Amino acid sequence: MKSKVLLLVSSIILSTTSFAQKDELKTLKKIYGKEKISDSDMELYKTTLVKGESLVAGSTEDEKVYFAYYKAVAPILEMTSALMNPAKSTDPSLASKILSVDKVNQFVAVANATKDYEKKSGKQVYTNDINQKITTLKPILVSYAVFLSNVPNYKDAAIVLAAIYYLDNTDLEKLYFAANYAVNSKDYNMSLAYYLLLKEKKYSGEGEGLYAINIKSQKEEIFNTKTERDIYIKAGTHEKPRDEKLPSKRPEIYKNIALIYLELGKSIEAKSAIQEARVENPDDVSLIISESNIYLKENDMVSYKKLISAALEKNPNNADLVFNLGVISYNNKELLEAEKYYLKAVELDPKYGNAYLNLAILKLDSEKILIDKMNKLGTSTAEMKKYDVLKKQREDVYKSAIPYLKKVVELDPQNVEAIRTLIGVYNAIEMFDEAKVLKAQLKK
Fold first, then answer.
1. How far, in Å, CA of 402 to CA of 73, rounded?
2. How confident is the model at residue 170 (pLDDT cuts 50, 70, 90)?
3. Closest CA to 116 of 130, 106, 105, 102
4. DSSP state of 221
5. Between the CA of residue 313 and those of 8, 18, 308, what are the distances in Å?
6. What are φ and ψ of residue 117, in 5° steps?
7. I need a surface site. Which of 21, 41, 98, 255 has the fewest CB within 10 A?
């Protein structure tokens, strides 16, 4: 008899819990469905969420799904409510006070899970409403991302923009900007994931750019459709609409994938990606240089020189490329070739300090050979004559380096090593007054 009583009590407790849970859901549903949610509504909504949290475990799958949705959408409702309040809507940091990256990600996950559940169950309760909320939420999240980037917090800005794509997978443009922000944050793994997804989706970004100026921020914003922009223009929040033809971003995407692989030290993937990028960007010299840098790191100087030469064919007036060929030639002991390239570099760019410095080094290198010969000579009359000849040659070496060293110091007065080298040269050929001036400059 006692066991029957206990069983009856248990069933009463279970039914009461279920009834309470349904009461919480009714309250949440009622507030959620309001066109305008007041501050007091929002407070009741939050307290109801707290009360309902402890009852979730004993709920049906249906109740669990919708309670999770009501919880995840809370900051979105609070944000929307605040924007309707003139006293709050003018606060530029409003989104940062209500939203967070975690809350945005939570809404994305739960909103998509809710839509999936309704698709599976065949009951379309909130799917359409979620889609409408996404449309309303997009400009809010864009503004939030811009706020984060201005802090600057590029990583979180990237995550927020990517969230827009995960809410609406047709909006690849936001994923593109998310990838750019991720690069700015130096989170190369994140940016690579976004760029690879853009590549997989064959995103080009080619089309028509629809812009208008946000009257409040005075910053130009881009819109997905003319209809969307017209709504904001009519609402009085934006002005000065303009259209612009947008070129394909695919070459840039391919290029960035290659460069990120290179940054991550994945040379095999980088080489493959650069080959693809060069197909998309046949005239982009920077890609050839990037590929050459892979071979430079691998100490494959033959391939490196071949690529630099190919880049130079496309851009013969690029002083950096010519200088690089000079460095390669110098390292290969091809000194006349090196001098030719360094002289060409300063011809193309008269302010190319490193080329002048390398010309000076090239000249001074021959001093070592002369000193070795001088040290091997004896003290006989014949050998002393040879010594004088070598000494004169050594002075000529110093004199040939002086114009280049002076140019380096002229272009970069803070180059201590160049100043010290020039002082040493002056002292070696007894130009003591010139050395004294430079010493005074060095002290300053």
1. 73
2. very high
3. 130
4. E
5. 91, 77, 9
6. -65, -45
7. 41
What is the rounded CA–CA span in Å between residue 61 and residue 81?
29
Q: What is the pLDDT of residues 97-144, one digit of tens each?
A: 899 999 999 999 999 999 999 999 998 889 999 999 998 899 889 989
Count, residues in the chain: 444
Query: End-to-end alpha-carbon separation of the chain, Å?
Result: 103
Tens digits of residue pLDDT in 41-58: 999 999 999 988 877 777
| For the chain, counts of helices (H) and of strands (E) | 21, 3
Question: Is residue 20 a contact partner of residue 48, using CB atoms and an 8 Å limit?
Answer: no
Sheet of strand 238-246: strand arrangement: 219-223, 207-214, 238-246
User: Which of 67-76, 170-179, 358-367 bottoms out in mean pLDDT, i.e. has the lowest?
Assistant: 358-367
Residue 352 predicted with pLDDT over 80: yes
pLDDT at 7 over 80: no
Predicted local confidence at residue 21, as pLDDT: 54
Residue-wise DSSP of 360-375: HHHHHHHHHHHHHHHH
Sign of CA dihedral 202, 205, 207, 212: positive
Query: Tokens 């030469």 label which residue?
Result: 309
* Residue 112 CB coordination number (10 Å): 14
Looking at 96-110, 209-223, 278-292, 410-424, which range is the least confident one? 278-292
Residue 199 has pLDDT above 90, yes or no: yes
Q: Can you name the residues that pair with 212 across neighbouring β-strands? A: 221
pLDDT tens digit string along 273-292?
Answer: 988 888 888 878 878 888 88
- Average pLDDT score over the chain: 87
Angle 269-273-274 (CA atoms, 0-180°, nearest 5)? Answer: 115
Orientation angle between helical segments 353-376 and 319-331, nearest 10 degrees: 20
Dig out the tokens for 227 from the structure.
């209809």
| Residue 300, phi then psi, degrees to nearest 5 | -95, 85
Q: CA–CA separation, 270 vs 31, rounded Å?
A: 53
What does the angle CA 51 – CA 55 – CA 60 come to, to the nearest 5 degrees? Answer: 135
DSSP character string of 375-402: HH--SSHHHHHHHHHHHHHHHHHHHHHH
| Tokens read off for 158 | 């990237």
